[in-house]
Amino acid sequence: MTDPAADGPRTPVWRRIVLKLSGEMLAGGGEGGIRPEVIARMAEEVSQVQARGVQVALVIGGGNIFRGLAGASRGMDRAQADTMGMLATVINGLALQDALEQAGCPTRLMTALSMPQVAEPFIRRRAMRHLDKGRVVVFAAGTGNPYFSTDTAAALRATEVQAEVLLKGTKVDGVFDRDPATFPDAVRLERITAMEALQRGLRVMDATAIALCMDNGLPIVVFDATRPGNLLRVVLGEPIGTRVEPRPA
Q1: Parallel, antiparallel, or unpaired: how do β-strands 242-245 and 191-193 relate?
Q2: Where are the domains of the chain?
Q3: Please, is 211 exposed, middle or buried when counting C-beta atoms within 10 Å of its C-beta (0-12, 13-18, 19+)?
Q4: DSSP SS3 for 119
Q5: Where are the alpha helices (DSSP H) in 77-166?
Q6: What's the mean pLDDT when you consider all of the chain?
Q7: What end-to-end distance do the CA atoms of the chain give, in Å?
Q8: How confident is the model at residue 10 (pLDDT cuts 50, 70, 90)?
Q9: For 216-234, how does the pLDDT look when each residue is reduced to its tens digit (9 = 90+)?
């Protein structure tokens, strides 16, 4: 993959980031599963960012395999369904770890549920040590608790490892004042506050995740991760997507 920033700025604006990707991103627009070419592209983009000295951690969802809320809506016990969803994120994490290592990134998979034959348990100081050593860290199994989304897991892990920003890769180019799929005249918001996002019910992340970022002074950047090169452009400070500030300027 060519470097999307070859002729632009070369200095990252953050030293340590957490990138949140939904499980659906790995399906590449399909109904489910993992498309190898999609996950390989994502791994290559992460390697481009890491090559610039940025410490990268990822939180991956599991919606391409199983979504806890969907199971609960069909009559399953919510805690049981959420546990199945957390296990789905581990499958995605293993696939992402393999793709990252094939892209040349030393990677550690850490899970909130204990499964030592598969991955390391999440230990905050160990995760930070991995990042300091230049390893990409993939956080799977959410928070390890039912009733909490992977958005909340991403906000929690970003706060715990002292990341400077939480990047949320989506299928749309940021946050809009209303649903762009329904309203063609929807306007993308370049910069909003976390409180504004909560008050207006904007689809940034779930309310728990936004409140956690707001309370801990952590900015969120929502951007289109399906467009090749966008991750590096965001890290280099290009005005892509929507920046959600934890507090008013």
Answers
A1: parallel
A2: 16-245
A3: middle
A4: coil
A5: 78-102, 124-132, 150-160
A6: 92
A7: 37
A8: confident
A9: 999 999 999 999 999 999 9
Question: Which residue type occupies 15?
Answer: R
Q: What element of type H or E holds 113? A: none
Q: CA–CA separation, 145 vs 86, rounded Å?
A: 9
Q: How far is CA 244 from CA 113, 130, 147, 218, 223, in A?
A: 30, 28, 24, 9, 11
Which string of DSSP letters, residue by residue, matches the chain?
A: ---TTTTS--S-S-SEEEEEE-HHHHHTTSSSS--HHHHHHHHHHHHHHHTTT-EEEEEE--TTT--HHHHHHTT--HHHHHHHHHHHHHHHHHHHHHHHHHTT--EEEEESS--TTTSEEP-HHHHHHHHHTT-EEEEESTTSSTT--HHHHHHHHHHHTT-SEEEEEESSSSEESS-TTT-TT--EESEEEHHHHHHHT-SSS-HHHHHHHHHTT--EEEEETTSTTHHHHHHTT---SEEEESS--
Instruction: Judge if pTM exceeds 0.90.
Output: yes
Q: Which tokens go with 157?
A: 């892990």
Quote the tokens at residue 199. 């008050």
Return the number of other C-beta atoms located less than 10 Å from residue 73's C-beta: 11
Fold of 16-245: Carbamate kinase (3.40.1160)
Q: Give the model's pLDDT for residue 196.
A: 93
